[in-house]
């Protein structure tokens, strides 16, 4: 369902891998009985038109059903825990000109990427509260 990477791509305005995330949240929030029934439908393509035409914008994320919100919330927390520093530490480093300039160019670029990723993850947390 998720592909080789095992990750979803979330942008500032929407989920970029929306089909994979929607399907994963749907399946993971099913009971064992619901999953067996869904699997027996001879194809995962038989979803309703509503699901096919929806996009996972930020607004749509905030309207997810409670079980899906919890799954997404917990997943984001696990992802944030995988970083060595938190959002505030990265922000402090970005704001500290002297410390920032001591970093190599590669470290500066990594800091910007990491900070951006964390900001998006925190935004998702807010949306699924």
TrEMBL record:
Residues 38-58 are annotated as: Disordered. Residues 43-53 have a biased composition (Acidic residues). This is N-lysine methyltransferase SETD6. One of its GO terms (biological process) is methylation. The lineage of its organism: Eukaryota, Metazoa, Chordata, Craniata, Vertebrata. GO terms for cellular component: nucleus. Its main location: nucleus. Pfam families: Rubis-subs-bind (PF09273). It comes from Todus mexicanus. It is found in: Nucleus. It comes from the Eukaryota. Residues 4-121 form the Rubisco LSMT substrate-binding domain. GO terms for molecular function: methyltransferase activity. Keywords: Methyltransferase, Nucleus, S-adenosyl-L-methionine, Transferase. The gene is Setd6_1.
